[in-house]
């Protein structure tokens, strides 16, 4: 007999409405979605969801697992366990690990490492250039053939226009996206936070927003010329949103993501030299934060991605001048966004799930992910929208506790996460 499981008495979204439902899972796939209490429970296993929200498993196209190379910060195991805790069932791993998976052999080894340890689906990014720096392109065709989701040098921008141009030409032929950490090094000026009123007040070196916007402007021009799909990581500046909006209006194949922290915080939240608020790109001005939300609402920005970037407590205890850039995020993304944007009515729950699941799956062609429909793999997240919890160090399954949201009390806790019908997180 085929393995059958009933998730009974949940609630799912139909349009903007939450509707009571049962979800039946047979042999790892969603086999039936029906009215609450109506599914035949016969000799099936049953989990009573007690009215919790049943969502398609979330999809995060931007995570850092530090494995191999810095496994004191995170491993593929702990990073994907953290993702499961956050309701993510598919994540994409950045290639800024050591060694960089920049040859077909190293890339294949990285895929094997992911397969050996991961508790959720992991898509792997290949770097654009050897060592993720400089101008020597990787073997695009071989990496694509091995299954690279896309190419990115995340952690650093591609400095030379010609290198980006050649990379996009190859990506266009292969039909694989270029995913850009947009940062012109010559415009960063050794900064550690957004250059503006607050950096001047705190006496900390500032990063001008143009370091992001200028490179995105260059790249949308190259994307238009090559026909490549160009996706921008962690958009942070109002100027960048304007460039992207114009590019989309002109028919350029461009997509973009924004992080929860850039949507929920701005540089005015930095009240002292505190490295929990140090990330790249930095938190912008309040006007940048407003422009990011407006960009998401009008479709200029397609999705939300966490940029989960664990670092050690000792590193993050340093001054912003010395600490590394990056914060964790895959365990707090849904609860923070639900609590701070959905509950006050700024966005709807349906919009949030679109940005955290459906759109990223659609943009990156992950056909098995992002939808709660019959026939799909049972990649499911269940959230308790009512109960609140406080973010403390014990909250995290990640090895990294470097979060500016420590101490926040949030609703929208994950009750259950399953991948292909197998429970990978349960509260
Ligand atoms: N976002 C960050 O501040 N840091 C990321 C790199 C990156 O995403 O650019 C990291 O790997 O630590
Ligand atoms: Zn980046
Ligand atoms: Zn990143």
Automatic annotation (TrEMBL):
Which named protein is this?
A: Dihydroorotase
Catalytic activity, reaction form: (S)-dihydroorotate + H2O = N-carbamoyl-L-aspartate + H(+)
Question: Any one Gene Ontology biological process term?
Answer: purine nucleobase catabolic process
Q: Report the protein's function.
A: Catalyzes the reversible cyclization of carbamoyl aspartate to dihydroorotate.
InterPro entries (alphabetical): DHOase, DHOase/Allantoinase_Hydrolase, DHOase_cat, Dihydroorotase_CS, Metal-dep_hydrolase_composite, Metal_Hydrolase
Which residue ranges does the record assign to the Dihydroorotase catalytic domain? 53-237
Q: Cite the Gene3D superfamilies for this sequence.
A: Metal-dependent hydrolases, Urease, subunit C, domain 1
Pathway per the UniProt entry: Pyrimidine metabolism; UMP biosynthesis via de novo pathway; (S)-dihydroorotate from bicarbonate: step 3/3
* EC number from the UniProt entry: 3.5.2.3
Give the source lineage, highest ranks first.
Bacteria, Bacillati, Bacillota, Bacilli, Lactobacillales
User: Can you quote the record's cofactor note?
Assistant: Binds 2 Zn(2+) ions per subunit.
The organism is Secundilactobacillus kimchicus JCM 15530
């Amino acid at each position: 007999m085929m393995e059958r499981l009933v998730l009974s008495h949940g609630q799912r979204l139909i349009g903007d409405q939450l509707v009571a439902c049962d979800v039946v899972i047979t042999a790892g796939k969603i086999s039936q979605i029906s009215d609450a209490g109506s599914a035949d429970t016969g000799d099936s296993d049953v989990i009573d969801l007690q009215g919790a929200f049943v969502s398609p498993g979330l999809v995060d196209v931007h995570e850092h697992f530090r494995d191999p190379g810095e496994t004191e910060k995170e491993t593929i195991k702990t990073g994907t366990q953290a993702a499961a805790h956050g309701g993510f069932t598919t994540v994409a791993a950045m290639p800024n690990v050591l060694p960089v998976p920049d040859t077909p052999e190293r890339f294949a080894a990285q895929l094997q490492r992911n397969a050996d340890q991961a508790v959720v689906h992991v898509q792997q990014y290949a770097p654009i250039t050897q060592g993720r720096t400089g101008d020597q392109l990787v073997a695009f065709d071989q990496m694509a053939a091995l299954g690279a989701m896309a190419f990115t040098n995340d952690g650093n921008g591609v400095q030379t226009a010609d290198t980006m141009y050649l990379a996009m030409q190859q990506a266009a032929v292969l039909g694989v996206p270029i995913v850009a950490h947009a940062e012109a090094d010559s415009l960063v000026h050794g900064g550690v936070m957004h250059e503006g009123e607050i950096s001047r007040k705190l006496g900390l070196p500032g990063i001008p927003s143009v370091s992001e916007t200028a490179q995105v402007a260059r790249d949308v021009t190259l994307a238009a010329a090559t026909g490549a799909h160009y996706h921008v990581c962690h958009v942070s500046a109002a100027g960048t949103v304007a460039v992207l909006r114009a590019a989309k209006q002109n028919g350029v194949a461009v997509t973009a993501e924004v992080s929860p922290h850039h949507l929920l915080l701005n540089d005015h939240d930095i009240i002292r030299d505190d490295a929990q608020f140090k990330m790249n790109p930095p938190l912008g001005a309040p006007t940048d934060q407003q422009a990011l939300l407006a960009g998401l609402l009008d479709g200029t920005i397609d999705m939300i991605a966490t940029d989960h970037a664990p670092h050690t407590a000792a590193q993050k205890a340093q001054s912003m001048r010395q600490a590394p850039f990056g914060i964790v995020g895959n365990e707090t993304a849904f609860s923070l966004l639900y609590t701070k944007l959905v509950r006050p009515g700024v966005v709807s729950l349906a919009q949030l799930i679109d940005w955290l699941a459906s759109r990223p799956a659609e943009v990156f062609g992950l056909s098995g992910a992002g939808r709660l429909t019959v026939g799909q793999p049972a990649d499911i997240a269940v959230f308790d929208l009512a109960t609140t919890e406080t973010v403390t160090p014990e909250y995290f399954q990640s090895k990294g506790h470097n979060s500016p949201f420590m101490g926040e009390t949030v609703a929208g806790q994950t009750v259950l996460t399953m991948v292909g019908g197998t429970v990978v997180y349960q509260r």
